[in-house]
Amino acid sequence: MSLKARISEDMKTAMKARETDRLAAIRLLMAAIKQKEVDERVELDDAGITAVVDKMLKQRRDSITQYEAAQRQDLADKEKAEMAVLTAYLPQQLTAEEIDVMIDGAIAASGAAGMQDMGKVMALLKPHMAGRADMGAVSARIKAKLAG
């Protein structure tokens, strides 16, 4: 079953079970997918849908930071609940050890010698890690390895 079909089925299930918060998060996801398809005039595959989910999760993390800084825990909790629903549609996340192994391999493959080669390393890693790791955290790890 494709990811899009799974999301549609989950939306129907949430409707039948009257899970309003879960249903709202899934509808937001479906709207974002549809918007991307209309904008680019393509039918998104699983990788494209994963990219949309990843973008939505990043937006939620940013919102949570802003809400907590503004002392609006109620809104931060709502965003966290949406994140929990959205996370279910991502592929299995990489462990810290797996990320380190992949970074070491990419550094060796690209012949990176310092910070100026950061882009080469990221270019090698991004296709393999998209949706499976927080690329901001991966970037920080690469910087630490290249600087040290």
From TrEMBL:
Name the record gives this protein: GatB/YqeY domain-containing protein
Q: Which organism is it from?
A: Vogesella aquatica
